[in-house]
């Protein structure tokens, strides 16, 4: 008999890749989607289409992570072997505008799932999508499972609540629950509001004459960027381990937003950006052109920002046998080439 998995956030980047992975492994997959006047299933339509045999093993349920009654009903109805809680707001900046809602979704949402598991008494393993934003400006590089947390946004504070809730239910109620502290992981399915996809899509549009300039915030912010399909395998491996624990998923490298945008334009055009000015007056020019293609805008600065994140994935490598393969430059190439092709087809 195949295993049964329940995924919240199945229509997101990670949820869609995870659904693919589990279906390939023979799972029956149930996903929670929010009811809306507009369908937002484009990332999983290839899995759920009428002509796709995988749709026989994929089931979608309307629900909301903020509704405890709904979550409890679904857990009791589906009786999953594994639950992957991937539900979250679109990105960190949104959490500054919606702090209370962020806590309800990204913090208390995990509690609702764990309570449902505890009260139902089912034998179910639980994965919580945690975040490297927990570390904030830690001052220690690289960051690992023992690095102190210093959250710098409502998003990170909510994730911190969820993190310790997982630990509490694991220790107090012997529930197999894991936190995956995933550093930034990107792909061609990344939401357009995220800086990496904003860059790759912006480059494609600029080179195709559909956009004049790319407006960005802090060019010096540094992140540890990996490839999302590899990270969901790490998430799955956590729930296959003999013992529940928490793991960092990362590449062990740190790159700036400036490096990402520079590499993206090089992939698309074969030319390097030339930077002129400084601070919010800095602009990026392609080759010898006098027309800027990158402008720094204060609008995209966060009220508080994290300067540098870089993860140490050695525990995941040793215990789970997981390690990243796609390099930073390969990741940028994958995203830019996809978006160039996407823009040309429009």
Spans of at least 5 consecutive residues with low confidence: none
* Oligomeric grouping of the chains: single chain
The percent range for helix content is 25-40%
Number of helices: 11
**What's the end-to-end separation, in Å?**
44 Å
Describe the structure.
The chain has helices at 13-24, 45-48, 68-78, 92-97, 99-120, 154-173, 195-207, 228-238, 257-269, 314-320, 328-345; strands at 4-8, 28-33, 58-62, 82-85, 125-131, 177-182, 185-186, 214-216, 222-223, 226-227, 247-249, 255-256, 273-276, 283-286, 292-296. Helices cover 40% and strands 17% of the residues. The strands form 4 sheets. It has a 7-stranded parallel sheet, with helices on both faces. Strands 8-15-14-13 form a 4-stranded mixed sheet. Strands 7-10 form a two-stranded parallel sheet. The longest helix is centred in the N-terminal third of the chain and has 22 residues, at 99-120. Strand 1 (4-8), helix 1 (13-24) and strand 2 form a beta-alpha-beta unit. The chain has 346 residues and is α/β, with parallel strands linked by helices.
What are the defining features of this structure?
seven-stranded parallel β-sheet
Indicate the topology.
Layout: E1 4-8, H1 13-24, E2 28-33, H2 45-48, E3 58-62, H3 68-78, E4 82-85, H4 92-97, H5 99-120, E5 125-131, H6 154-173, E6 177-182, E7 185-186, H7 195-207, E8 214-216, E9 222-223, E10 226-227, H8 228-238, E11 247-249, E12 255-256, H9 257-269, E13 273-276, E14 283-286, E15 292-296, H10 314-320, H11 328-345
Parallel strand pairs: 1-2, 1-4, 2-3, 4-5, 5-6, 6-11, 7-10, 8-15
Antiparallel strand pairs: 9-12, 13-14, 14-15
Helix pairs in contact: 1-8, 3-5, 5-6, 7-9, 7-11, 9-11
